[in-house]
From TrEMBL:
This is Uncharacterized protein. InterPro entries: 6-blade_b-propeller_TolB-like, Serum_paraoxonase/arylesterase. It comes from the Eukaryota. It comes from Gymnopilus junonius.
Length: 343
């Protein structure tokens, strides 16, 4: 992320397979049954262009269907320009990614996050238009685009079938979390499948930090609707200090879930009371039809067992495991397993 003293070493992608519980009857749903569980495996690249940088910032995957290859897209902050790399991964060889093509467009000039709408179409957020100062100040000059690709045989300038601006004049759209001018809201839009335009804002949820990435997940405790996991940064200047390797610098982590509650007809001022620092201690209320709960908090001090700079939170619906990545964390990835059951 950002300029590198030496851009030559390539970054990498990793595969993590959780241990399986034979009693849950879902073995067939797991990728790579022959790959050792509870261990990170580096993915090797096949047919990747010689001399081409690879500095991944965000990825998105359209999963395998009936044994067909998965489609994986990775934002690549290469030294010359930001591009998107297209790979396929065969379920039979899940630790090998075959490079398909490099996608370059004005619609990904400052790409930060991806959200797929099909195996060959995606939304891409661009966190600034001209300079990074826009991101720091939260100026509403950035944008979200939707890109549809031609079949994989089309490469170079011919790779893109169509591209449209789904949302213009957005302040600092980091990943798929679209921030408000205060950089503390998650905006939920209704999507028009025919045009891919984000046509109507359904609601907004104010969160107690600067959101980074969001993901939909099955409900944690048997709810009726999909929950939204939001990871972010309670104190953004701390990240700058950590990135600059300042002595003693730490940056906290906070991951929450936005929980739909269709029967909830009024806001609440007290919620998330089990967390060490509750969300309700930072915000005046939750919302009508939804509430929030903390999934993870840490001061970020790794010397004291903390985990810093939360960027992404994911839940495995099969095992109940919770995964979190840390942007500058020495450990890279944190795995939390339920003590019993799947909650």
């Amino acid at each position: 992320m950002g300029p590198l003293k030496d851009p030559n070493p390539r970054g990498g992608l990793w595969l993590y397979v959780p241990s399986r519980n034979a009693s849950d009857g879902n073995d067939s749903k797991y990728l790579a049954s022959k790959v050792a569980a509870d261990k990170a495996h580096r993915i090797t690249f096949k047919n990747y262009p010689e001399g081409h940088d690879f500095h991944p910032l965000g990825i998105a995957i359209w999963p395998s269907l009936a044994g067909q290859p998965s489609n994986l897209y990775a934002i690549n902050h290469a030294r010359e320009r930001t591009v998107i790399e297209h790979f396929t991964i065969n379920p039979a060889t899940p630790t090998e990614a075959e490079h398909v093509r490099t996608i370059s467009s004005f619609h990904s000039l400052s790409a930060n996050g991806l959200a797929l709408t099909s195996p060959d179409a995606f939304y891409v957020t661009n966190d600034h238009f001209i300079t990074l100062i826009e991101s720091v100040l939260g100026l509403p000059l950035a944008f979200v685009s939707h890109v549809t690709l031609n079949p994989p045989t089309h490469k170079g300038p011919d790779a893109i079938a169509s591209a449209t601006f789904a949302k213009l004049f957005v302040p600092f759209p980091n990943g798929v979390a679209v921030s408000s001018p205060e950089r503390s809201q998650v905006l939920i839009y209704e999507r028009d499948p025919a045009t891919n335009a984000l046509i109507r804002q359904k609601y907004s949820a104010t969160v107690p930090f600067s959101p980074d990435n969001i993901h939909f997940t099955e409900p944690f405790n048997g709810g009726s609707g999909e929950e939204i996991i939001v990871a972010g940064h309670p104190n953004f200047p701390d990240i700058t200090a950590v990135a600059a390797n300042k002595t003693g610098a730490v940056a906290a982590s906070w991951v929450i879930a936005i929980v739909p509650q269709a029967e909830k007809n009024e806001t609440s001022v007290e919620f998330d009371l089990e967390a060490p620092v509750s969300i309700s201690s930072k915000l005046t209320s939750d919302g009508v039809g939804w509430t929030m709960k903390t999934l993870f908090q840490s001061s970020g001090d790794e010397e004291k067992g903390g985990f810093p700079v939360s960027t992404t939170g994911l839940k495995d619906p099969q095992t109940g495991n919770f995964y979190m990545s840390g942007l500058y964390a020495d450990g890279g990835l944190l795995v939390c397993k339920p003590s019993s059951g799947k909650n």
